[in-house]
Each structure stands twice: as structure tokens, then as C-alpha cells.
Design a protein that fits this description.
DNA-binding; homodimer; mainly alpha; 7 helices; about 70% helix; elongated
Chain lengths: ~100, ~100
DNA sequence: TCCAGATGTAGCGCATCACGTGACAGAGGG
DNA sequence: CCCTCTGTCACGTGATGCGCTACATCTGGA
């Protein structure tokens, strides 16, 4: 993602990018290697750097974290009662607070 | 949000909800009071409980965290160089990995 | 051939934070 | 009066992002 598309396009090395982002070289490397998550602070830095929306980077991380959480809590989730919420209320809340 | 719409509709108290989610009562309270963030694990539990999508709860938290990050790093972000990324590449990446 | 820079990887310490637990106080209903 | 629910605080723990140091590898230029 970042390494294969953005950095080559900007003609930036990992070391240079880390300097411009004002973070440690290893910190950026951990993100690139998937060893660390994309934090909101990191997303804000990346958004500033290349113009991609911050929530884009965060949504990628979010989907990843959610996937892990659902699998780690699979057996626990099965024990949680499922309550019916009226669709009218559901759609009402989603339209009120949903992303455009 | 949770307290004002979902819980009254389900006729659930905070204590009961915490028991059904298999978490400590104080943990749920911290989330309701905004003292703690909605983690992916918590979002998965809430999604199971009331049927609202997990990414909905996480998007709420995400927007909040991002807002804080951008303000906390305001002066730092100003020092990060802005690089122009071709719109063709931008939209290409967004369509590839963007949420529907 | 030699060397400087970039990169990958590992370990250490620090700060932050979600979470559980125990405890205490106030409000409200039977 | 007692019980439940609730809000709040304090403490400890485990996880994690981050900076830093250090070492090995590789590549391109002098």
C-alpha cells in the first residue's frame, strides 16, 4: 500500500519519509511491516504528507483490528444474547451519525 | 447514543448490559461516560448485542480519536512537507481499498 | 576494493490505556 | 430500612505504540 504505491510515486525512501514525518525510522518500518498499527496520530501525519484522507488509513487498520477481534472473541460472542432493535430506530441512528 | 437510544429500547440497565456483554460494570460505564474508547473488541460485543454494525461504533470512536490527534499534532503537522499525489493514483487506490 | 547510505531486525525502557477488581457514596423503590 | 442501580475513585496488570541503540546485510559510487 504505502510502500508500493505512495512512496515510489513521491520518490521518497523510508528513511527520508520518516524524517519528514518527524518519527523514528523504525517506527515507520514497523507500520510498513504490519508489526504496529496505524494510530490516529500516524494517519494524520500520512494524510498531511501525501494528501490521502486520514480516515482512509484508519479504515484499513480498523477493518484489520475488527477482523482479529471478532475471531479472538468468537466463542465469547456466541454467549452474548442477541436483542432485536427495530429497523426504524437502526436506520434512524445510522442516518443521524453515519458517514456521508 | 448507546445510553439514550439503545438501552432504553432494549429495556436493559447498565448492570444487566455489562453482564450480558461479559465485561465489568465499570468498563461499560467508562465507555458510556467517554472515559474509555470503544475498542474493536467492545464494538464486536455491542454489534452482537443490538445488531448495529461493529464498524458503526468504531467509526464514531475513530472520528473522535482523529479529531484529537489532529489538534494535538497541529504544530507538528505544519512542519510536514505536503507532496502532490496524482489524482489518478488517489482515486485508483480509493476505489481499490475504499469502503463501499 | 572500499565505504557511505538505506534497510531489516532485535532488544530495552518508557508512557499510555483498556480492563478487572475492590471499595465507597448517593438515589430510588419495595 | 434495605436492596439495587449507578457514579466515581484507586490500584494493579497486560498490551502496545514509540524512541533509542546496536548489529547485519545490501547496493551504488568513488
Amino acid at each position: 500500500m504505502l510502500r508500493n504505491w505512495v512512496l515510489p510515486e513521491l520518490r521518497l525512501t523510508v528513511t527520508q519519509t520518516a524524517q519528514e514525518l518527524e518519527i523514528a525510522r523504525q517506527t515507520l518500518h514497523r507500520v510498513l511491516a504490519g508489526k504496529a498499527a496505524v494510530t490516529p496520530e500516524m494517519a494524520a501525519r500520512l494524510a498531511r504528507l501525501c494528501g490521502m484522507p486520514a480516515h482512509f488509513w484508519l479504515d484499513l487498520q480498523l477493518a484489520h483490528d475488527l477482523w482479529h477481534a471478532q475471531h479472538a472473541l468468537a466463542d465469547t460472542l456466541e454467549r452474548i444474547p442477541v436483542h432485536a432493535l427495530p429497523d426504524t430506530l437502526k436506520t434512524d441512528i445510522l442516518t443521524r451519525h453515519g458517514r456521508t
